[in-house]
Amino acid sequence: MTFKFLDDRFATSGQVTKDDLPKIQQAGIAGIICVRPDNEEAGQPSAAEIGVEAEALGLAFVSIPVKSGVTPSPESVHAMRRALDTIQGKILAYCRSGARASMLYELARKSESVKSETRRFDVVIAGGGAAGIATAASLLKRRPGTTVAIIDPATEHYYQPGWTLVGAGVFTPEQTRRSEVTLIPQAANWIRETVTGFDPEHNQVRLGDGSSVEYTTLVVALGIKLDWAGIEGLVDTLGKNGVTSNYRYDLAPYTWKLVQGLNSGTAIFTQPPMPIKCAGAPQKAAYLSCDAWRRRGVKDAISVEFDTCTPGLFGVAAFVPALMAYIRRYNIAFNPKTRLVKVDGASRIATFEKTTDSGTETIERKFDMLHVVPPQAPPDVVRDSKLADAAGWVSVDPTTLRHTAYANVFALGDCAGTSNAKTAAAVRKQAPVVAYNVAATLDHRAVGAEYDGYGACPLTVERGKIVLAEFAYNGALTPTLPKWLLDGQKPTWLAWFLKEKIMPLLYWDFMLRGREIMVKPKVKA
């Protein structure tokens, strides 16, 4: 292929194919911008196809589709301006011939830099993870023209529910990662800074560069803190000495490597005190590992333990019988009320504290493989703010997700002080609720959208079968599909199909795009 440099940094070309990407990378290009809409002609590769392959090579990728013969919209110009400001290095933009890419570039060059835009917004969203982006997308579809700023320094975005399957050799790590710039809604402003404080009395958020932004309404979506240092010796041995975790992008592949390499010995899987994100993930790792060993015919030579701080296997009783059947099937030693406190990687010794009727005892166990889930806590910036409840989470009404003291503040996702399961499925339900209620607040209407506490945990009990636990506040069962089609209290292949094929699609192409399929908020009359 050939491309034309318009200046020392920006080039344009015709349609890019997957075969062109290595050449583009070798030419020193750091990021690619697709300006061509999908399906303009037969056989045209989609933006998603090119984007996935580009990001696998380490290239940033942004899609800003502009129809042929149409002047780019202000949102498209804004998105191009943002891409120019955020992609570090040389950029190649493509369409059918390169003409639309050139026009969009010229319009963006003449526009004001995103970095110098106004520092006051209708809505400021602290956090650019799943909760923040989904809320922004839903809000902008519901209330076009709203000025929205998303504050987050991350350049990469991860589909974290997929890491369980990375650790089982089902997904590749690259399937769970995309560039952040490709996901921020075109009409939103992206402030690539860290949130360092909140001043709700003055409607301000403080940033890591020392500046502040002002808001009319604030949404807090800063996730949860993974406290790897909360277990003595863990940080020094992660990713080696048989110590791994599916709770990190770079470590999930090591889980699968360990599973493939272990033919005998002891494998230990741990779960810290609640609350944690995706409370079923610690035991999912155990089940999928055992299933892989069973398929290879080595399971009987491997002793497996599941140590959890919780008193039971799962918090909703209806799903426990199916899970206990797999504990017995895989001959897993189930140790409740047991907390991992120390790891000596070099000696391969894990130290636990077990709570008994007579007190606490310390137990040391040798291991060949140790899958660790770190203790988890509210983000420091939330815990230390006026927005926090007594436990350090953002204090919100569990139904409207509005702050209990500040009427123009909302929170959702892992940092919210609600009792629902901290899962992506919960965020998918929460984001439309917050978007509706934020729009109502801006329009001086009553907040009427209600969240029922829905969360879902697809418990991968073996490769090809899942117990799909769906429940709301107080453990109420809330199945999405009728029982005759999918019985969530039993392991089914259909739930596995949903987990492997449908849920990633719902995440990337629906939730993060503000498409509220099957999650339209219930609005109180």
Give the N-to-C terminal Cα separation: 59 Å
CATH topology annotation of the largest domain: FAD/NAD(P)-binding domain
**Multimeric state:** single chain
Would you identify the regions where 5 or more consecutive residues have pLDDT less than 50? Answer: none
What would you call the structural class? alpha/beta
Helical element count? 13
State the share of residues found in helices, binned by percent.
Answer: 25-40%
Strand elements, count: 28
Largest sheet: 7 strands, mixed
The backbone outline, from C-alpha atoms, is globular
**Strand content range:** 15-25%
CATH class of the largest domain: Alpha Beta
Going by CATH, the homologous superfamily of the largest domain would be FAD/NAD(P)-binding domain
Report the mean per-residue pLDDT as an integer. 94
Organism: Brytella acorum
GO molecular function: FAD binding; hydrolase activity; quinone binding; sulfide:quinone oxidoreductase activity; transferase activity
InterPro entries: BLH_phosphatase-like, FAD/NAD-bd_sf, FAD/NAD-binding_dom, Prot-tyrosine_phosphatase-like, Sulphide_quinone_reductase
Keywords: FAD, Flavoprotein, Oxidoreductase, Quinone, Transferase, Transit peptide
Question: Would you summarize the structure shown here?
Answer:
By secondary structure, this protein is an alpha/beta fold. The chain is 26% helix and 25% strand. A hairpin with a 4-residue loop joins strand 1 (4-5) and strand 2 (10-13).
